[in-house]
Structure formats: C-alpha cells, structure tokens
Specification:
SDR_family_member_7, 10 helices, alpha/beta, SDR_fam, Rossmann fold, 13% strand, single chain
C-alpha cells in the first residue's frame, strides 16, 4: 500500500484536476482524506468515486474567506482526529498581458493563491507544532521558478509561495515539520480554461501545451512519491522542467527560448 497508508491528508482544490487525482491516489493507498474546494457537488462526486468513501471527509472551503479558517481547520482536524499532511493545491491561473490586466486581477490572484494558502497554513501550524510533526505540500509551478509572458500575476504569486514556505521550513524544522514545494509543468487539467484574463473573466480556451501535458494521474503518483520522500522541491512535467536548469546556469538563453516558444 505504500507510505500513504494510515496517513491523514487534507487536500484543497480537490473537486477537479490535480486535487481530484491526488484524492484518488491517496485514498487508494489507504489514507484518510479530507477534501476541500468551493464546489460542494464536485467534492461529493469525488468522494463517491473513491473505493472507501467512508475514509473521505467533505469540507467545503473558499480560500478568500480566511475568517472561516479557524473553525474549518478544527473541523478538518476532528474529522479523523489528526492531520499528517496539508496539501495546498487550490488556486487559479492567469492568461493576459501586463498592459491589459486590471489591478483587481492581480489582487484576486494574490488573495487566493498566496494569502489564502498562507492563512490556512498558519492556522494549522500550531496544531502541527503541538503534535511535533506535520508536512506542508504546496503546489507551486515551474512558473514559481521562472517566468513566461501572459502569466505575470500567476508567476508573481507562485514565486511568493517559495519565499514563504522556504522560511517556514527553516523556522519549524526543529518542530518536526516538513515542507515540500511541488512545481508542475504542463499537466492535463482545466487550468488554462479556468485562468483569468485581463478583465477578470475566465479564459475558457484550452492551450496545446496543457492539452499535450503530463496525464494528471501520472502527475499525482509522482507528486505523492515526492511528498513521501519529503523532498524540498520537485519538478514534475515533460521537457519543460529543463527550464529550471537553463534558468539557473544560462538565464539569457532561457529568456530567448521562452520568447520563441508557442506557449500562450
């Protein structure tokens, strides 16, 4: 059954995409899973798709409503009596040029992807410290390590997550707390369709890179493996993950490659 057995895992953004795939991956390994998202009907469907639905607890959650996090976290904790791993997966992407993007869109991206994630993590942190163990697995992106046109706000918030969680890892290693940052490349989900455009509306179009990306089930299995190994960071995707190393050693070359690419 693997290392997921007997673990208690809380997954945000679990009603579709990566979060849904992770729910099945953990549930199949024997874990108990608390699943959260805004889409209650979607969460109920995910629960019913699991082999042992009695090991799945549905907890609707909106990352913007930080004032609810205290009692939502208590409910999540009480569902199975503890939590071993918080998987910060919920978020929204963006596809628009800087010149065309309203400031409100940047604020929304920051509120959901960054501040919502930080607030939820801060709420559960004292409980992790109390039990002297716990792991934060935060879904960032390759865009948290280098940038690309049309994704300025998304890149900004993902870069910010690295700054915060790297500091959290250092401050709380002494408390037995682990931090794993997961950087997906192109994964076959609706992330591009659901991305915000300049006026804050949905993109509603698929892009070829996402359509031809890594299957989400393959991604979820690799992500679980990285969390099991307590890696600091994991880059999961196809050839696009090479951008990490090109950026590190040849930043100007990466700039040219990205500008020439068809990615939009």
């Amino acid at each position: 059954m693997g290392l997921g057995q007997e673990k208690i895992v809380w997954i945000t953004g679990a009603s579709s995409g990566i979060g849904e795939a992770l729910t099945y991956t953990y549930a199949n390994s024997g874990a108990k899973v608390i699943i959260s998202a805004r889409n209650t009907a979607g969460l109920a469907a995910v629960k019913q798709n699991c082999i042992h639905p009695e090991n799945i607890y549905v907890l609707p959650l909106d990352l913007i409503k930080t004032e609810e996090f205290e009692f939502k976290t208590k409910e999540a904790w009480n569902a199975f009596g503890a939590i071993d791993i918080l998987i910060n997966n919920a978020g929204v992407s963006q596809r628009s040029l800087i010149i065309d993007t309203d400031l409100e869109v940047y604020k929304k991206l920051m509120d959901i992807n960054y501040l919502g994630t930080v607030a939820l993590s801060k709420t559960i942190l004292p409980l992790f410290i109390q039990q002297k163990k716990g792991q934060f697995a935060t879904v960032s992106s390759l865009m948290g390590k280098f940038s690309s046109p049309y994704r300025s706000g998304y890149c900004g918030v993902k870069h910010a997550l690295h700054g915060f969680f790297d500091a959290l890892r250092m401050e709380h290693e002494k408390d037995g707390i682990k931090v794993t940052l997961i950087c997906p490349g192109f994964i076959q989900t609706d992330v591009a369709k659901n991305a915000l455009v300049g006026d804050g509306s949905k993109n509603n179009t698929e892009d070829n890179a996402t359509k031809n990306g890594l299957p989400v089930t393959v991604f979820a299995a690799r992500m679980k493996k990285a969390i099991d190994k307590e890696k600091f960071e994991a880059y999961i995707g196809k050839k696009e993950i090479l951008g990490i190393y090109v950026k590190r050693f040849f930043p100007k070359l990466l700039h040219k490659i990205v500008l020439k690419s068809e990615v939009r």
